Amino acid sequence: MRSLYGGIEAGGTKFVCAVGTCPDDVSAEVRFATTTPSETIGRTIDFFRERPEPLTAIGIGSFGPLDLNPDSPTYGYITTTTKTGWTNTNFAGVLQEALNVPVLLDTDVNAAALGEHKWGVAQGLDTFIYLTVGTGIGGGGMVNGHLIHGLSHPEMGHVYIPHDPVRDPYPGCCLYHGDCLEGLACGPAIEERWGQPPETLPADHSAWRLEARYLALGLVNIIFALSPQRVIIGGGVLQQESLLPMVRKNVHELIHDFVPVPPLSNDTDSYIVLPALGQKAGVLGAIALAQQAISLP
Ligand code: ADP
Ligand code: ZN
Q1: Is 165 within 8 Å of 175 (Cβ atoms)?
Q2: Which ligand gives the minimal distance to the CA of 186?
Q3: Which of 8, 174, 203, 293 is close enough to 57 for a disulfide, judged by CB 3.0 to 4.6 Å?
């Protein structure tokens, strides 16, 4: 009997559930709005119960923050989230109990990073990061072949970067830090600063020069801290195609030739790249996590 895996992309706005084994084999996909935990997790359980073939394991790439410490009494929970109603929600445990299969939970960005490692632009690498710039800014990735965990999980979107209030009086929108990277550069920050949604700002608008500068400042901090072999950057805001070339140029300038190692030193086009799995990155990453669920001790 072949192994079949379940994947859940658990976002603050929508959930996507699917079963499959790889990018060419994803079936029975369903998506629904994220409402209350009981309704949303209930629909997720119903979807998997209705699958005709038994599942080997389920992976969840979720919004957070999450408790990923196996020794913690709240392991597998969504913890201090600002998403109304979801604080302290037992997520992985409830699914495991209802469906009676191994369930592996990780952050949405770590799951997407794992998918890129298995099938996308991070194949063969052992240290890389995945940053997404959308409603918020999240970062995950691998160090030395392992998805990054630690005390908790990385919160790369919340690094502080230089903010010149004369050049940019916008105070930032992070509920916790004000003008951290997310507070200054996520999609809603662009919208508030310029008074219109980012998707309506033309490619030559000065908003994009400032955005590229902020993203590059954040990335350079992460590059210096982790020495990734590649940086993957995605999310809705990167749909503005003028942005990525400017991010690359700013990163190159900010490094000041300090790291004389290719491709960072001579080819930022191949060093800072878009994800390969596109719209399916979330759910494929979750399927990749499910495959890890059975290979881990
Ligand atoms: P989420 O973070 O909720 O998963 P996305 O990654 O799709 O969602 O990002 C949503 C953000 O991307 C919103 O702030 C939206 O304004 C912005 N966005 C969507 N389309 C574009 C576009 N074409 N150019 C720039 N920004 C965009
Ligand atoms: Zn913050």
Answers
A1: no
A2: 1
A3: 293
pLDDT in tens, 237-291: 999 999 999 999 999 999 999 999 999 999 999 999 999 998 888 999 999 999 9
Is the pTM value of this prediction over 0.85? yes
Pairing state between β 57-62 and 103-107: parallel
Q: Are residues 256 and 231 in the same domain?
A: yes
Q: Residue 274 in 3-state DSSP?
A: coil
**CA–centroid distance, residue 297 to ligand 1 (Å):** 38
Domain CATH number, residue 197 = 3.30.420.40
CA–centroid distance, residue 33 to ligand 1 (Å): 17
134 CB near ligand 1 (under 6 Å) = yes
Domain-embedded: residue 128: yes
Residue with CA at minimum distance from ligand 1 atom 12: 236
151 and 253 Cβ atoms separated by less than 8 Å: no
Q: Identify the residue whose C-alpha is closest to ligand 1 atom 26.
A: 237
Q: How many domains does the chain have?
A: 2
Same domain, 89 and 139: no
- Count Cα atoms within 13 angstroms, Cβ side, for 168: 24
DSSP of 217-250, one letter per residue?
HHHHHHHHHH--SEEEEESGGGGSTTHHHHHHHH
Query: Does 58 share its domain with 178?
Result: no
Which H/E stretch holds residue 17?
A: strand 14-22
CB 15 within 8 A of CB 7: no
| DSSP string across 137-193 | EEEEEEETTEE--SSS---GGG-B----TTT------BTTTBSBHHHHHSHHHHHHH
Domain span including residue 47? 5-108+279-293
